[in-house]
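Key idea: predict the complex, not the pieces.
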Amino acid sequence: MATSEHAAVEVEGLVKTFGETRAVDGIDLAVAPGIVYGVLGPNGAGKTTTLRMLATLLRPTAGTARVFGHDVVRDADAVRSCVSLTGQFASIDEDLTGTENLTLIGRLVGFKRADAKDRAAELLAAFGLTEAEGRQVKKFSGGMRRRIDIAASIVVTPRLLFLDEPTTGLDPRSRNQVWDIVRALVADGTTVLLTTQYLEEADQLADRIAVIDHGKVIAEGTSAELKASVGAGAVHVRLVDPAHRPQAQRLLSDALGAQVLLESESVALSARVALDRTDAVASAATVARALDVLATNRIPVADFSLGQPSLDEVFLAITGHPAVEAGSDDPGPDPDATADREVMA
Amino acid sequence: MSTIPADVQADTTFELDDAALRAALSTRARPPRPSGLSTSLTFGWRALLKIKHVPEQLFDVTIFPVMLTLMFTYLFGGALAGSTEDYLQFLLPGILVQTVIFTTVYTGVTLNTDMERGVFDRFRSLPIWRPSPLVGAQLGDMVRYTLGSIVVIVLGIVLGFRPDGGVQGVVAAVALLLVFAFGIGWIFTLLGLVMRTPNAVMSVGMMVLFPLTFASNIFVSPDTMPEWLQTFVDHNPVTRMVTATRGLMAGDPSAGEIGWVLLAALLFTAVFAPIVMRRYQRIN
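Result:
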């Protein structure tokens, strides 16, 4: 590395096998300090296994991983001194109270008893948990549990924080609170590496995103770069009358020479179209062609827009299958059956 | 996973206070790294907190020995020793040993339950002396062993057990027993690490401990047993532990037996603690 400052995470050719299964199958990652890095992928893609290797909980089968220049195998103790992990399932003791949990971690990182108690009280207040401080964590709501879990990770604010699916199973309000906490942490200088199966979460929080599928990184970049790498924009059309949709799909498909997807909403369609970003006139012509064919055939249009594809569409384009939007406790139906749109050439 | 109880705290009023959040995040310097002893004691404190919050976990270790003591004393005591009083003098030190040895299984069961939970991942990702969660759990178990011992001894005294060794003899016997249990505890810690479920740890533990405690001198003197069984009983570490305990409680300690028990505890620790640590480093 030519840089004097170490990358927060450098991973080369990381592999982890469990028996015959290659859970992680040659992953490369580079995470600059001070950013939120999102690892995006469906259940079973290898996200958690990767995180557990970086947090020194699992030994890699092959490849190397360094955290701030420290090797996760040879120099595990140095790695542990600069990271914290909030696991997918509560990494706190559910039998103990909020105060006891945070005091316990405080003692373990080396605070004196009184300092550990002060720090626990400070964190409980900051995370809105003061009222619940004497309550066993198993009696906390999901959002509170996640907050105390994160609080336990920052008893000493780490240089690098791992968050494994921090908002899976949370209601939107609790999810927003977790996002606010992550943003505050990063503003304070902590690097955050989070895994998620929610494309919106990666889009909202992450400065850079690695898309993982079947233990491999299949795309990497900023949200905008990923969208651009699909090499296309999207024309989104909403009709007035759902009865016109089959006809509109056929017409647009012919006019644009592109796939036209039927969205889950019964009046909506979208088409992925090649957009030449250096030639706005050509893009305008594409739009004009689409509008023209609908007008000529007297199909009323409620809404029409030209934009970048959503990360959903990006995931579909890269992996050939949609990101599964289900909690890990709830594997949902057969992935093949979850595609909520039909594809027509 | 258990379902969330009905009295879960409502979470509707909370708004994140940005200023308080920023203040709490303002990175505090990491304090000096705590010693292995300090972190082990902290984990011991955690075990005590768990006993405080989940006192039900003590039921098994207290009710079973009470039942056995009552049953053997009153059902078989007269037949075995002529009178229940005489038999109690013989039985109680043995029951004490059996109680504590059975409790060591819970060391493994507790560890196995703990490791299924995410909190162990947090412990393992902390920069602390590696064995401290295991050593701390063992220290916490000492409290459990002591409580079990107190229950048995108090019950014995209520029923008429009168140790000639006095308080000193009884305390010395319990102390020796704790050392022995610490040694055996490593075996069950290992089981707790390698078995898949807490129930499996329990089954294997019972399968080993039932023959080991019954084929000993806890309940009857081995004189009337067939010779091959006598040979087994004589070499059973439990027998040696019971003989040492009886000696201490009767005010007639045998240096040989005590030395043998201490050596056994040392040997168990020397053999199993390193295996446990290797296993612990490689949990997947």
